[in-house]
Amino acid sequence: MHFDPIGFIRSPYTDKFGIPRQPGLVTAAEARLELLPTFAREEAFKGIEGFSHVWILFVFHADCLDAGWRPTVRPPRLGGRETVGVFASRAPYRPNPIGLSAVEHLGLVKDARGLALRLRGIDLLDGTPVLDIKPYVPYADSFPQASSGFATPPLATVALPVRFSDQAQTDLDRADPHGERQLRALIEQVLAQDPRPGYMDRYPQRRDFGIRLFDQNIRWRIDPDGLSVIAIEPFAEPA
Fold first, then answer.
1. Which InterPro entries is this protein grouped with (predicted)?
2. What stretches of 4-72 show up as alpha helix (H) in DSSP?
């Protein structure tokens, strides 16, 4: 079997740290699935406008393709302390590193970069190869009474308050002057999920962190009553 991608994700998540653990948790996260020329045909999407959400089947490409699979993994939901079988998880290190996400689609756009499908609520790293798109069908794909094992609902249903320092607000005005990136909302929603690994409670002395969104490095701090964004700086690739 051999599969070729139909396109690639262009996402605000330019680093794995900070990506929400499931789709739909950060609604400000918008992306484009940019289709390769062979598949950039509008007739291939005829009828998709009737569906609000789609399944995206993708490849875990970052550090996974050549890493091999692991029979047991330590899910973040369990704080990285307990192991479960890889087939009882959504971990990326699988025999075939394939993932799926149910996300909202906002329709097709055709511009100088080609044909793309706009997506919202994504949890995908920038550059992710996509293998297929399928419509999400609520009556068949949703099982509200299903049990979810150790994958309990996120505690961040009560979101942590996120504050911006004066410096961070100045930086935000520079990085997203017209709000086209929804950068403030994106930062607030990502940080409200508390993106730190579950094992960080072993290191209570560490308070300062950073995540990368788009081409910006977001520096933030854990406070007793929430989170503070300290600064937003252009990300510089190491020399």
1. TrmO-like_N, TrmO_C, UPF0066_cons_site, YaeB-like, YaeB-like_sf, YaeB_N_sf
2. none
